[in-house]
Amino acid sequence: MGFCASSLAAEVDFSGLRLSKDDQLLFSARTESPVYGSFDTLLASDLSTGTISQLSFFPEQVALLDRGERIQIRNRFGVFRSGSELKGLETVGAFPSFGSGADIESGKLLQISSSPDGRFLVYLEPTGDAYADLYLYEVESEELFQVSSSVEISYNDPPALWAGNSEFFVYQKGGDVYYFSMEQKAGDRVIDESYRKIGPGGISSVVWSKQNELFYIRRNLVYRILGSEFFARSIYGGMLDIGTIVGKVPFVFDPNFDAFVVSPDGNKLLYNRGGRSLFLYYLQADDYLAEGGIKSLPYLLLPRNTRVKQILWSSGNIITVLTGSFEDGGKKSGLFRIDLTVESDALSFQQIPGSGVSDIELSPNEELVAVVRGDGVDLKAYDSWKSVSAFTHPDPMHVLWPSDKELLIAGKRYTELVGLDKGERRIIALSQAGEYGFTEAGEEENIVGGRYFRLTGSEDSTAWEELKERSTLVDPSTAGTAFRVYIESVNGSSYRNIVMVRSVAGYGTKRLFPEPEKRYVPFPDVDEPLVGESFTHGSRIRRREVALVFNAIDSPEGLTEVLQVLDDYALRATFFVNGEFIRRNPGAVKELASSRHEIGSLFYVYFNMTDARFKVDVDFIKRGLARNEDDFFDATGKELSLLWHAPYYFVSTNIISAGKAMNYRYVGRDVDPLDWVPETECDGDSFYLASRDIVERIMQLKQPGSIIPIRLGELEEGRGDYLFQYLDLLINGLIREGYSIVPVTTLMEHAR
């Protein structure tokens, strides 16, 4: 894992100006993408008209539409869609691109749900850091329809799930699931949202089957809903069940943590409990009496540091599970398979070699599976898992099947179509700018991934042809016949600099493109001094940065997800561990210690130090800090950082002086997110907030130098959701306002 405390996650850096004699400009923009790191996008401009076109398309999100005839690429520069036969890429109208004057996005990107027939898009338009309006967009007519408002933002889930026939989609809002009918939309008779409610739950509570039936879990009951039933059952929801009960599960389904998939025949269900435990169930509505012998059903229990990433389930009833985990400070993957056709009373999942696998995709006819690794894609026969062939590809990111005979590999260098029969390869798009420039003839060429490309100059302005050998490029120039270009630094926005164009004949200079519309909030004129000897915040005027602090008190829920999100953004943070957490979860503590995050002490036991029953003197605190040091060392072989805070952030003279005597610095907070308030206190006078509301609260309260604590683990009294589940919402909001996220010691250093 490559951690950094960079403040540049939201900044765009323009460079590489290449101006031809006839005033055609090539330049690049370097941006940061969570998960995939930085990438350079190649851009071109005709300075005589001021138009900007995009020549490379980094595939942060990729989808195949219209039965594999078209590709859609989404990145922070816009949404781009090809014509038929995967040729050409043009901007989708609802999503203005950088070339048409829109800002380049920062942080993680929201997903877009495309209808299987490619005619419609469902997407979220944020109204804040945690909520958005939900829109339906018809691509051909460019008609926009608002489906809902105040919908919760999620970077992990799609905004909607489409039925395979594109006739319905479902979405979540306010703890409930709703449906939307395209037939009602076409007839201009969309009913009020309150009558389209399916029931309580989230997007993980529903799954479409291959037969276009919706499976829905409510508590421990599994329902099947036909499209023809939506209207009647939702209108008469107080009198009728929303669907037909087809099965039961032995757990109460929690849409915050659980998920499920349904077999292709609709008769079986694989229940994903908490992201790490898989249970197979045969669906039957009445389980009061058992028929036949008692059968042991298979399950897969994964370690706490492991999460299910992907599940394939073929019509032949073979299930393959891809998992991901953190181990020894790095990411690891695993593969598990089970063949349900085997005659056995004790079927079980079997682990198979799966190191370095990032993606698996089943072919349409289910005969082959594409397995993505770091240097290419392996093809295997799905039933036997025997190798069939392999294709090298530098840094592959996604793999898709346009047909049984074609494979689309989208990577960090380029996206290509591979024909399986003869092995032909066709470049669909370049992903990045490489070594680019103009030839003597004024042609644009680019070297990416060791391959040579020339812009074709055809009607498809994004098409590149591959060359057998490189041409000689002219020396870079910033002066043409009518214009000169240069880079100028800018402040207060997500662009570090901007391209300036000076007219030789017109005696004028202007920006090639506008600065971002969103500007950062200015720093205060005067710094805020610290009060007392508790470090509660950093400087308010020197840097736009904050520290995220994670308090591990007793249970490890959320730790794996937090480490994953921090790794996605390449961030270092500060953790405080309590003795109870160390003693109960030594494996989690060892993994945390190997993650290169900063780890301080949260004392030996977690209790209210203001309780009059306890004598909390200097000696007691010293012994508690020393005991926590020893327990941490015994579990990890490493030492704690000399940072600490008391349970509940209680501060007293004894607490400060005892810590100082042991060379500890006490770390307080200036933002209380209230994520420790249980839902049981949810009454008129309660401080309880849903976690997305907590995100918006933090964004209102934070300042440069803020210390923002987040509690790990589930509360004994319970909450509807937890702040650690929406860490990416918070980080994205901070990045978009220009904040870097650093460990507490970095705040201290910058405050000196």
Structure description:
The protein has 752 residues and is mainly β. Among the domains are: 1-77 and 432-519, no CATH class; 545-751, Glycoside hydrolase/deacetylase (TIM Barrel, Alpha-Beta Barrel), CATH 3.20.20.370. It is built from 10 helices and 50 strands. The strands form 13 sheets. Strands 44, 45, 46, 49 and 50 form a 5-stranded parallel β-sheet that branches. It has a 4-stranded antiparallel β-sheet with strand order 1-2-3-4, with no helix packed on it. Strand 38 and strand 39 (451-455) form a beta hairpin. Helix 6 crosses helix 7 (653-661) and helix 8 runs parallel beside helix 9 (727-736). It is globular and about 85 Å long. It starts with 12 loop residues before the first strand and ends with a helix. Residues 1-9 and 288-294 have low confidence and may be disordered. It comes from Sediminispirochaeta smaragdinae (strain DSM 11293 / JCM 15392 / SEBR 4228) (Spirochaeta smaragdinae). This is Polysaccharide deacetylase.
Concise account of the structure shown:
This protein is mostly beta strands and 752 residues long. It is 12% helix and 36% strand. The model is unreliable at 1-9 and 288-294 (pLDDT under 50).
Low-confidence stretches: 1-9, 288-294
> Outline, from the CA principal axes?
globular
Instruction: Provide the CATH top-level class of the domain at 545-751.
Output: Alpha Beta
Helix % is: 10-25%
Task: Please state roughly what percent of the residues sit in beta strands, choosing from under 5%, 5-15%, 15-25%, 25-35%, 35-45% or over 45%.
Answer: 35-45%
Total number of beta strands: 50
Distance between the termini: 30 Å
Radius of gyration: 28 Å
Protein name: Polysaccharide deacetylase
Pfam family, one: Polysacc_deac_1
GO molecular function: hydrolase activity, acting on carbon-nitrogen (but not peptide) bonds
